[in-house]
Amino acid sequence: MNMGICADGDNFAAIIPRNTTVPARRDMLFTTTHDNQTEAPVAVYEGEGECAEENHLLGYFKITGIPLAPKGAVEISVCMDIDAANVLRVFAGVVTPHGQGVPPFIEVRMLTLDDGHGWCGQALAKMYGGKLDLAVLPKKIQP
């Protein structure tokens, strides 16, 4: 199955496509959807549906410390890593410019997992009102 996150409203952004050979590590760039957005929840799903809600919620976490900027100005990298034992790790953080005395990637790991009874999805909807605040960045064209 595809592994990815909810972005652009309720769309499912697949980061690791189905039938990918493991171990595998893939990342995708996203951006903020609001001016001066300082945090963003990340909901991790597996499935084949185009809408996130059509897929199985694996867990979620929140990226904090996003610098104040107009919407779309901050890049956020989400990386998924599946090891040889099929253990999924999800990392995310703000991509910062080099040379400013801060790490180029501030890492957050997914800690909350669904137990299969739907409590994770219910808690996510209650906490964030079902609205997740990331948008997929278009791929940059290489010169």
TrEMBL record:
Q: What InterPro entries would the database entry show?
A: HSP70_peptide-bd_sf, Hsp_70_fam
> What's in the keyword line of the UniProt record?
ATP-binding, Nucleotide-binding
Does the keyword field hold Nucleotide-binding? yes
What would you give as a GO molecular function for this chain, any one?
ATP binding
Q: What is this protein called?
A: Uncharacterized protein
What's the source species for this entry?
A: Arundo donax
